[in-house]
Specification:
Shape: flat
Strand order of the largest sheet: 3-2-1-6-5-4
Largest sheet: 6 strands, antiparallel
Structural class: alpha+beta
Strand content: 5-15%
Distance between the termini: 118 Å
Helix content: 55-70%
Radius of gyration: 38 Å
């Protein structure tokens, strides 16, 4: 009986073990099949993406990159053309050089040599600047003075003068000893603008530097980039290949078949696939075409190989599933759990690496006001998921602005804003971690940064913020050689109020005192809106004189008046926002004067948004340099080309006469008699130079003076009228017609504001 029971138990145990083994086998087979199918799908997707989508994305990326860099090359070549044209019109290279005795007048010979040396060093791509003067005795400055024989003159330099174009690009042999070598050359006839030139001024460019410039349009190390004139007379390549090479000819044939001036396409050549982008550059006399071809096979091939490998591995896994299930059926769960544990650790590691970036992104959205649709509780829960401790906490927002990038102390220049901000951010993060339990720094990449502090409710922030601000200020001063303005918000109890606090501290920084290098603005202590300092006076007189100097083309006076204008805005106690708003107002009036003079500002400034550019500059010195370079110089250059010096001198004398005698009964006849011209010439020239009629200019001058007296004096209206040359009744009528209100009403409004 006992033996039967034992046999029954053993049989039952055997069935249990067998069923358990079959369960393990089925489980393992299912796992392998399920794990193998995603591998097949993944491999197929990778193969499809590498075969099509990746190539298309690379083509679009390549085209955008090449188009951007071609614009940079176009700007550099355009600057070289402007530079050579500027020197060609210089009086050093005028008609007096024709038949000039350079040996006898050696001082001028030395001056020309020094000028050519300066031109040669003005741009890194210029290998040599030369001057050739033809005639009976051909002379070459290279840059030293030398006399050419008749053969070298007629074979090399005279054909350059024979060209119809005043300025042009060419590939030319300037060294008779290297007749088979042609260098890229920019040529300008001298004297500039002459119909009968007798010489040329030219730049000879370094082949290696030109090749390096073209290499900027090649995103990868391999490939081909070249430029050529549409006529085919000029060809420049990064690899030094000829215009008749099979690859170049094939590319040109393909581009010609497309029939467009710019675009991109794939090109197969010798078992390699290239992304090709092409376009045109507008050069003097003739357009150039640029072509950039880069191989992408080296990028897509590894992806294709990996996708095929994934498919093969997945198939092998399916075939081995039965064998491995029998081999490891009883030990399946231990490896699975180990694998899951390792994957969990790996995922946690990746999450820890990406968390700072996610937190920065969240704070950016919060400060910019993109999360206003969420309630306080929703925002707090999201912050808790990002590992912030926000319960029973309040928030502080700091806004930092770096100043003094272009001072003599610093080692930075324009364009280094991102680098400077990055260095400052590192200092802020390190110091904030020492003073606060929870802090996050945000980089705005434009010499500004934001800091969000999370402070426990039972902890004071004032002393810690003050210590942090002073230590940060010292570090910025010592290491970056720059100054900093810090604005500290009031304590914020609700997370939804953080965007408003951020806008307030940004606005507070704009109220910084221009004269103080480093500033700390605590919104809890400093009531910016309640301060009672006198508002700065806008220098209307300097503005009027500056506009007048611009209209008459007096460049030196305009530069000096602009400096005085900015100095008046930056007087003692001036705020940054006052200076910036004043300069924006001046920019509007200058643009109005430009339009009145008959010049289109959009064409003059090439469509640039000057208001946006000026609003991004916060330092008076940089504002002055920007205004001189971007506004005054282009207008004065344009004006100087439209009006000769004699006419400008006469109109300037007339305008001075009007300013000195506007209070008298003066007329066009009086002014013409004073300047020694007739009324018809004066009227026409006055309109041409100033853009206004004589009587309109006189009326505007009188009205400006009248408004100044109404604002700044207590004179009676009758006396004001007499001071500006009008009778009382006529003065009231013309003032109301031009200003839309009576003089009395204007005085009341100006004093109220």
């Amino acid at each position: 009986m006992l033996s039967k029971v034992r046999a029954g138990l053993a049989k039952r145990r055997g069935r249990a073990v067998g069923s358990q083994g079959r369960f393990y086998k089925k489980s393992l087979i299912t796992i392998f099949i399920v794990s193998g199918i995603p591998g097949l799908i993944l491999g197929a997707l990778i193969y499809w993406m590498a075969g099509g989508r990746v190539e298309r994305e690379l083509l679009q990326l390549h085209y955008r990159l090449i188009e951007q860099r071609s614009q940079n090359i176009d700007d550099q070549l355009g600057n070289l053309e402007l530079l050579l044209s500027h020197w060609a019109f210089d009086n050093k290279f005028d008609y007096s050089l024709n038949g000039f005795d350079f040996v006898k007048n050696f001082e001028r010979t030395q001056d020309i040599t020094r000028t050519l040396v300066a031109m040669q060093g003005s741009n890194a791509m210029v290998k040599k600047a030369e001057l050739y003067v033809g005639g009976k005795s051909s002379v070459l400055f290279n840059p030293e003075y030398s006399v050419l024989d008749e053969r070298a003159s007629s074979d090399i330099y005279e054909p350059l003068i024979a060209r119809n174009n005043v300025t042009y690009w060419t590939q030319w042999t300037l060294d008779a000893k290297r007749a088979d070598t042609q260098d890229l050359t920019l040529v300008h006839h001298i004297p500039g603008g002459s119909l009968h030139p007798f010489g040329v001024l030219l730049f000879q460019f370094d082949k290696e530097k030109i090749a390096d410039l073209l290499k900027t349009m090649t995103p990868y190390n391999d490939g081909e980039t070249f430029m050529l004139q549409t006529s085919g007379d000029l060809f420049v390549s990064t690899s030094g290949s000829a215009s008749t090479s099979p690859f170049v000819l094939a590319l040109r044939e393909k581009i010609n078949s497309l029939g467009t001036s710019k675009g991109s396409f794939f090109f197969d050549w010798e078992k390699s696939t290239y992304t090709v982008s092409f376009g045109s550059l507008s050069r003097i006399a003739e357009d150039w075409m640029f072509v950039s071809a880069s191989p992408i096979t080296s990028i897509t091939s590894p992806v294709l190989v990996i996708s095929k490998l994934i498919i093969m591995v997945s198939l092998v896994a399916l075939l081995l599933a039965a064998f491995l299930s029998w081999l490891a059926s009883r030990r399946i769960y231990l490896p699975v759990w180990r694998n899951l544990h390792n994957e969990s650790l790996e995922l946690n590691t990746k999450l820890a690496e990406q968390l700072p970036h996610v937190k920065d992104s969240f704070l950016h959205q919060l400060l910019q006001g993109y999360l206003t649709a969420f309630s306080d509780e929703d925002l707090l829960r999201r912050m808790e998921r990002f590992k912030w401790e926000v319960r029973e906490r309040y928030f502080i927002v700091l806004y930092a602005q770096l100043i003094g990038m272009t001072t003599m102390e610093g080692n930075f220049r324009d364009g280094d804003e991102g680098l400077i901000t990055f260095a400052a951010i590192n200092m802020m993060e390190e110091l904030a971690s020492q003073h606060f339990e929870q802090s996050n720094t945000l980089n705005f990449h434009d010499l500004t940064a934001g800091i969000v502090l999370i402070i426990p409710e039972n902890q004071s922030y004032s002393e810690a913020c003050q210590a942090f601000s002073e230590e940060l200020m010292q570090s910025i001063n010592r290491i970056l050689k720059m100054r900093i303005t810090l604005a500290i918000s009031r304590p914020i109890a609700h997370i939804s109020d953080v965007p408003l606090a951020f806008e307030r501290v940004k606005q507070a920084v704009s109220y910084r005192n221009i004269e103080i290098a480093n500033q700390i603005i605590d919104m809890q202590k400093d009531n910016l809106e309640g301060k009672s300092e006198a508002e700065p006076q806008y220098p209307f007189t300097l503005e009027r004189e500056l506009v007048q100097a611009l209209r008459t083309g007096r460049e030196d006076d305009a530069q000096q008046l602009l400096t005085s204008f900015l100095h008046a805005l930056s007087c003692k106690g001036a705020k940054g926002i006052d200076v910036q708003q004043g300069m924006l107002h001046l920019l509007g009036n200058v643009q109005h004067a430009i339009m009145v003079s008959g010049i289109n500002p959009n064409r003059l400034f090439k469509g640039a948004n000057l208001y946006e550019q000026l609003s991004q500059i916060r330092e008076p010195k940089r504002i002055l340099e920007w205004f001189q370079e971007k506004v005054l110089t282009p207008f004065l250059n344009e004006l100087s080309g439209r009006t000769d010096a004699q006419v400008k001198r006469i109109i300037e004398e007339a305008m001075i006469y009007l300013q000195q005698n506007y209070m008298k009964d003066i007329s066009l006849e009086n002014c013409a008699e004073h300047t020694g011209t007739n009324i018809f010439f004066l009227s026409k020239s006055f309109k041409q130079v100033t853009g206004k009629n004589f009587i309109d200019y006189l009326t505007e001058l009188r009205m400006d003076k009248a408004k100044e007296l109404l604002r700044e004096s207590v004179m009676k209206i009758n006396d004001v009228a007499e001071q500006v040359g009008y009778q009382h009744s006529y003065f009231n009528r013309i003032f109301k017609k031009l200003e839309g209100m009576t003089p009395t009403r204007y005085r009341e409004l100006s004093r109220t504001s």
